[in-house]
């Protein structure tokens, strides 16, 4: 698989790394990685209260929303706030201690690791699902249903700004339809991943597109404009069936199978939550929610229309957990 498959990566003050993957029946992995031990204590239904603050990726927000809604059935007095400011902004809030959990559509960067160090925030990274960044089209677009990586680079490269303005400039067989572009804003992890994969350099993208940290804006823009295209997480395509369609890349359509096996390349990826270790250790509400999120990751992914973790990812987590005893 061409995407990173590491799952739970615990960070202490010595930057100790783990390579576990969260998933069904893996609640112990989260508990061990975060605290160094497993309590094994069940939480009585309805016994908890508190407010858990999460922020970050618009892609991962639906997953955390689904986890919150399912968790509320057993702990209705725990309020879980899911803010959407983009992965990068979410890490800023997380590393300065504002939030308990960061929702991230990419892995934390070295600069963000340093910021968490400076803020005194030790954390654990947990992969909660897989995703395919999806190039979307208006349903009436019948010419660009299969695009190459090279064509996508022509569309989105900084050099194309103000110059590539019609579809016929991307491929002479395409109509002379005006090209209208929508996509995530500068704080988006999806933008970081997409540009690294397509234009060859993170954040290298033309500036003349409609940018928003709310992926629903991209959906709306593409759905209303014949010549529009954009990119976002696969779950938004499934949630908006009929309003937008997904293009194939080099002959491969984004599906659960092609994302899991990596053949939908180069835009398959894992998505993450990052948990503040002190919040997990000291607050029963945070600990119970994270345990629930990890233990029910497959069900949560299905509810949020995400690609679930693979068997190999779950097996890797179990193997790595065994080495910690």
UniProtKB/TrEMBL annotation:
Gene3D superfamilies: Periplasmic binding protein-like II. Belongs to the PstS family. InterPro entries: PBP_domain, Phos-bd, Phosphate_ABC_transporter. It comes from Microbacterium aoyamense. Keywords: Phosphate transport, Signal, Transport. Residues 44-295 form the PBP domain. The lineage of its organism: Bacteria, Bacillati, Actinomycetota, Actinomycetes, Micrococcales. Involved in the system for phosphate transport across the cytoplasmic membrane. This is Phosphate-binding protein.
């Amino acid at each position: 698989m061409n995407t990173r498959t590491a799952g739970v990566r615990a960070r202490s003050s010595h930057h100790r790394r783990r390579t576990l993957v969260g998933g069904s029946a893996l609640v112990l992995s989260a508990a061990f990685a975060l605290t160094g031990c497993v309590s094994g204590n069940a939480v009585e239904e309805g016994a908890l209260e508190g407010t858990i603050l999460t922020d970050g990726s618009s892609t991962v927000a639906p997953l955390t929303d689904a986890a919150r809604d399912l968790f509320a059935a057993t702990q209705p007095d725990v309020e879980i706030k899911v803010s959407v400011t983009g992965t990068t902004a979410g890490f800023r809030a997380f590393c300065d201690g504002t939030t308990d959990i960061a929702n991230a559509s990419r892995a934390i960067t070295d600069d963000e690791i340093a910021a968490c160090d400076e803020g005194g925030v030790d954390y654990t990274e947990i992969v909660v699902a897989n995703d395919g960044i999806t190039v979307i089209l208006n349903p009436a677009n019948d010419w660009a249903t299969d695009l190459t990586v090279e064509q996508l680079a022509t569309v989105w490269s900084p050099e194309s700004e103000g110059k590539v303005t019609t579809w016929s400039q991307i491929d002479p067989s395409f109509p002379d339809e005006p090209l209208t572009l929508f996509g995530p804003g500068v704080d988006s992890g999806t933008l970081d991943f997409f540009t690294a994969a397509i234009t060859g350099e993170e954040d290298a993208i033309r500036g003349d597109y409609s940018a928003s940290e709310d992926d629903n804006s991209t959906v709306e823009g593409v759905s209303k404009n014949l010549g529009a295209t954009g990119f976002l997480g696969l779950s938004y395509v499934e949630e908006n069936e009929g309003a937008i369609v997904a293009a194939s890349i080099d002959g491969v359509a984004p599906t659960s199978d092609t994302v899991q096996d990596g053949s939908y390349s180069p835009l398959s990826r894992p998505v993450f939550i990052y948990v503040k270790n002190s919040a997990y250790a000291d607050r029963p509400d945070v600990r119970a929610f994270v345990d629930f999120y990890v233990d029910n990751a497959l069900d949560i992914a299905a509810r949020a229309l995400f690609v679930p973790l693979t068997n190999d990812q779950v097996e890797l987590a179990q193997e790595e957990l065994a080495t910690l005893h």
